[in-house]
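[Meeting: bench + compute handoff]

Bench side (C.D.) handed over the final construct sequence. Compute side (W.E.) agreed to return the predicted structure before the next meeting so the bench team could plan truncations. Sequence as handed over:
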Amino acid sequence: MVAVSVLLMIGGLLIINGVYAYHSKHIDAHFLSTLWYYVKILPLLLSSILMIGYGVKFLTNSFHHLTFALIVSKGLEILASVLIGYLFLKEIPTWRTGLGIGIILIGFWVVKGK
């Protein structure tokens, strides 16, 4: 169940971050074109929100710890953001990115250790 929840969260987070990255790079800043873009991809956003929600729910049921599930979700969100930033904008992660991910991993250890 843990693997399913992590896969659901990763899938949903990649979709959401991909939608926003595509918007920032390819969609005109005018209100109507932005509105039309989001109307067209509303089913995609709804499915990604459901994926993230069920991923958090299943992880919470597995560990009986909501805080841990939400921290895992935020950590996966950072990893998805780094990946999407590289794929869409060719941004190379710096040492600060690695430090931030390291701090999050320490946070996993601290939360799960209690």
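W.E. noted at the follow-up: The chain has five helices and no strands. C.D. will use this when planning the next construct.
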